[in-house]
């Protein structure tokens, strides 16, 4: 996953719900130095019997915001969706550099 | 031929620790040992020789029964000499022996961050326990370890759904060719495999009351577990204040007391640890539940004292109530008796006066 262009990750989930799977896996995909390289990561754990759906909010350097519905999308499609935008930013950055 | 030279004939597929953990019924295991075997045909040569190497004389060849199963290598459903199988065994024994397990998700901690987190944890636990006491012993045996999620998941299933005591004995051949009954009920056995498979492949969902059904949603992603050998709220509170501080009840250690905690490496490590749940004495708790356990002041002893006090005071009330009924009855009867006595006395006294 390309994480260079992500500035904010906010998740909120109930770990006891099977739907929280993709949100939790997304957190584990962030690199070890994500916080040092300027990504704000906030995680809120919901109590065990809460029925709130898990949320995942991703913000990019260009200001684009993504609210991903974790209940239906699996981790693969989330990564795909995030990468689609990241690749575009990567392309722009490469062109600006070159 | 001595039993020593016979022992050399045993294949050594399994390493020693794998052997010690298997729960073959002891008596039958003894039957399988070569020491119970009478010495086979006399050897012509008194020299030392090994069965694994080429035997000295053709007449002295030691032949094991074709279906002989060495007691050190009981049959297994999973390959016994792989790291995964041995990890599974270590997890099952951990789950059976540890009453308190906190489950964390760790998101890409580096080795130095792990070291810093463990250092701070050890310091906090040591601060919670006075030196040389039982509490210090508990603190020294607390540990934070990374687990393989899928293997841990299987271990949870084995611990809950497999009962080793209900395994039927099977037949095995001793070194002399005798048939004996042996129980193969270790955690890698076919019986354990079948029991777990039956649960996971059955169509109906697991019962809500089972621990595994409650804890299985947590078994996702990279996991680490914090284990304590006893349920000790004091140690739990110390660990929580380091690993998952929650200010009013479990404040993070102060900057003055533990400057290492505010080290950037330790902080970035702790930020990546996420307390997702826990298992305390076979019950599943979320973060609030764990904090509730951590808040029990004085630990189990205090709870016991509270219970004793409650029972004692209830007993006192009960005795006084029961006593009260008896007392009032006694009082009533006593007053009645005195009345009757007086009545009896009255005419008698009058009669005496009349007679005199």
From TrEMBL, chain A:
Compartment annotation: Mitochondrion
Main localization of the protein described in the UniProt heading: mitochondrion
Keywords associated with the record: Mitochondrion, Ribonucleoprotein, Ribosomal protein
Keyword presence, Plastid: no
Family: Belongs to the mitochondrion-specific ribosomal protein mL53 family.
Database matches in PANTHER family: 54S RIBOSOMAL PROTEIN L44, MITOCHONDRIAL, LARGE RIBOSOMAL SUBUNIT PROTEIN ML53
Protein name: Large ribosomal subunit protein mL53
Species this protein is from: Remersonia thermophila
UniProtKB/TrEMBL annotation, chain B:
Compositionally biased spans, kind Low complexity: 54-66
Annotated segments matching region Disordered: 54-84
UniProt-listed InterPro entries: Ribosomal_uL10-like_sf (IPR043141), Ribosomal_uL10_bac_type (IPR047865)
Biased composition, class Pro residues, residue ranges: 67-77
UniProt-listed PANTHER family: 39S RIBOSOMAL PROTEIN L10, MITOCHONDRIAL
Family: Belongs to the universal ribosomal protein uL10 family.
Descriptive protein name: Ribosomal protein YmL11, mitochondrial
